[in-house]
Structure to design on (105 residues):
């Protein structure tokens, strides 16, 4: 490889980490709390356990609701605890106001 090719590869931007999770809170302005689940083996017994990590993510347009499944991407620190941003909403949660034709007495 020539020097230009090596320089071009090293100057390339690193791909940001992307995670998928469920919105558990949207009570803050332009911020959401996303729960991301992962499975890790127990150190001694090797049984896989579910671990949940909560991330604060930036939601510029306040478009997420609780229960939505979203993709978030790592970015520069935006505040003390917030260094993730919303990429897109993968699926919307069912809205409690919408009915499926059933009525309650």
């Amino acid at each position: 490889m020539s020097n230009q090719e090596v320089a071009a590869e090293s100057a390339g931007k690193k791909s940001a980490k992307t995670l998928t999770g469920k919105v558990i809170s949207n009570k803050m302005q332009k911020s959401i709390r996303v729960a991301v689940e992962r499975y890790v083996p127990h150190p001694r017994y090797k049984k896989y356990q579910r671990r949940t990590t909560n991330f604060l993510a930036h939601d510029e347009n306040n478009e997420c609701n609780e229960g939505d499944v979203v993709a978030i991407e790592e970015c520069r620190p935006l505040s003390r605890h917030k260094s993730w941003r919303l990429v897109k909403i993968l699926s919307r949660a069912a809205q409690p106001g919408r009915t499926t034709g059933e009525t309650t007495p």
In short: The two ends are 75 Å apart (CA to CA). The mean pLDDT is 87.
